[in-house]
Amino acid sequence: MTQATVVxxxxxxxxxxxxxxxxxxxxQNNILIGSLISGGLIGASVIISQVLPxxxxxxxxKTVLPSQTPSTVTSPVIETPKFIxxxxxxxxxxxxxxxxxxxxxTAVSTYFWLSQRLVTDTDLDGKDGLELDIMRNSxxxxxxxxxxxxxxxxxxxxxxxxxxIYSPKAFPLKLLSKLEQQNVEYISKYQDRYGLRYFNK
Length: 201
Known about the structure:
This protein is 41% helix and 0% strand.
């Protein structure tokens, strides 16, 4: 009699079952993830705020406007206007020699350039005796000399830059520079050459 082979069935396999998360552990995970995200955003914003101003500032520092380049910057040239009388004095006539009523407030003389460069005939051409007298004497007036001629004294008294210090006889000629002395002599010779004297002195 043959024996029957008994085949035993394999034991049933067990499938691990994941435990369902409890609502409490789920909320803890959400809080942890939320805090990590917010911390990352804060850190990123701090880094960005530190990097951006420096980079924009460095580019702003490197920006040079065309008007600021040294090659295009020019210094303003200020020219001293020549004395152009706006009829402040009457013209000389035979009936009114040395009678003058200067209105120096409307025509302010600025002959300071006579202390900076030599005068030429071009500077003197077209000027009358009165203007040439004022021009020549303005060199002395700029150093504080007073004048014997009342009309000249009155004229320079009305100039804002005039500060009388010395009497005509006590005026030290050494105050004049060599260039100023040359200009005084040049104007005087020009006046004599063309008979352009308004005042006797």
